[in-house]
Structure formats: C-alpha cells, structure tokens
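pasting YncE family protein for the record, 352 residues
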Amino acid sequence: MQELIRPGAEGDVLAVVSQSGADVSFFDAARHTPLGGVEVPAEPHELCFDPTRRLLWCTTSYRSGFYHANSGRRSELTVIDPDTRRIVEVVDLAPEHAPHGLALDAARGLLYVSVEGGPDRSGGVVVIDTATRRPIGRIDTGAPGPHWFVVDATGTTGYASNKEAPFVSVVDLGLGKLTDRIEVPGSEGIAVSPDGSRVFVAAPYGSFAGREDGAGGRPANGVRIIDTARAEVTATLATEGLVFPVHHTATGRVLAGELRMAPDPGAPLGRHAPGRLTVFSGEGGERLGGIEVGLFPLTITSSPDGRTGYVACVVSSTVDVVDLESMRRLGRLEIGLGDGAGAHGLAYVPSA
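structre below
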C-alpha cells in the first residue's frame, strides 16, 4: 500500500475505539496497517489526544448499550500512552456518570468532559486538570443529556449539544456557568470554526421515531449554523440523511456523517444502508462533494493538514479513510473482532 503514503504522515498514528470490543486500536496513518491495541474498561466511546502531555483520554459511558438503551452508566476515563500503547491511569469521576464528549484546552491544561444528569442534578461538564489528571470543577449545562462538547480557540466559551433538550448550551468557561441557550432541535454532533464565529451542530436528535422528512413533525435533517455573536441559527446545511457526527477541518471544510436506512418489511425503521460523508464549505456553506461510507457513521476526524478524513461507522465497525480533495476513498480499516465490535471514537496522533 505504498501508494497511499502521504507526505508528512510518516510516524503518525490513528487511534480508534472498538465500543463493544472494549479496546483502542492503533493504525499507521501513512500505510493504514494495524499497530496493535490496548484493552480498556467497557464500554469506551470517545477519544481525545493531548499533544502537550502526549496522552490519549478515552471515555467509558455505559456498561453496555448506548444512550437511553443501556444496562447502566459508568464513570471512568482511561488515560493511555499512545507511544507505548499502555494504560497510564483509570480516573473515576463518580458520582458523575456517563462521560462522553471530550474537549481540550491545551494552552490552559484543561480537559472538559460531558456527563449526563440524574434525579439530583442536570447534565454538565466536568473540568479536568491535565497535569494532575483530577477533576477541579463542574459546569451545569441545564439539560439532562449533553453528549458532545466543544471549546472555542480562545478557551473562553464552550458549547454542548443536547440530545433531547431543544437548545445548545453555551457556557462561560472562565465563570464556570451556563450563560445562554440557543434554540436548536435536539442535537447530535457539534463543531466550532477556528475563529469561534460559527458553531455547526447536527440536528435533529436521532431518536429513530418516525420519518425524518421535516413534514408536520420532526425538523428537516441537516447541520445548523449558529452565529455565535448573534447567538442564533442563521442557516442550515441540508442533508438527505440524519446527521450524527460533525467535524471542522483545518482547511475550512465541514464534514457531516449521514445515517441512511433502506426499506425492510421486517423492520419498522428499515435496515442500515451505506452511510454518506457529505462535505461543505465552512465559510460559504456550499456542498463540495460526498462519498459513500460504512454503516452508521458515528465519529469523524481529520489529519492536521485537513487533507484526509476518517469516518468511524459503528454498525459495520469500519473506518473509511477519505482523500478530502479528490473525494476518493484511500482505504477501509476493519475495527475489532467479529460482529458488533462497533467502531466509534477517533483520534489522530502526530509523531513525537
């Protein structure tokens, strides 16, 4: 696979969560060959790489299953050395539970982790000191199920998507409190532009209840664009399928992963069909292209130069590697062992 090597990718690594397989796999980012893995507590979901300390953070959300269909919530974060591929520490956030979304402020040495709410408190964001690897604060988000969380480049403002609440939560990270609610139908993935002027959020929430056609019930599928200065949605990037992951590349592209279903007489909601990666201009909103990917795209990331996209698909347990300039698939990585391994969280780890 020598022809797939990209300049500057030598020594870089892609880390991928196997949700049901309960491990993190590592791949050579130039050749797409496996490098081994590490077992982690079940059931891992998302990854975040801290380049300052060269550590990977991995959230463990549930004992098994997924949001609203699980056998119990967990409370652990696993800290991994990606160079030795060994666990450094398992951090227990209890009594907080169901940690999921991860956002890093490397300049301040702070990691933000979204956690679900309970009878005695709303969902929120736990603040971790990356030097001590210990919680130092909590910020309420005013909704029971904050799932993904992003921080702007200044490290002053954070945004949480909320699966069921009809708004995106805005938090002042300096004050440590919720400051605004921006009206958005229950939402999934979220990303922020490098200058902090726009937030891109996938909506509506994937409840799988009824048709996603925007007619008389659920809102139309797509990615809502929030103008952060005005604190309101100003446009929508329309998609055919329901969008779960959203990612903003270093080159200004917005990547949306669309779930697609095919009719099936034996299944009310149909059966999974190949998903789609749809690419938009983050500045003008133009549709730049798209490509078919695996079943149920759930996480997206890209290389630091913005040229290569990675789409983790949980039902097929694959990661599609896509050239974002030619919209050509460079490879497909098989994640985990057997059916149901569930490719989910992704992190790109540049070489040391």
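Residues 210-215 have pLDDT under 50 and may be disordered.
The longest strand covers residues 271-281.
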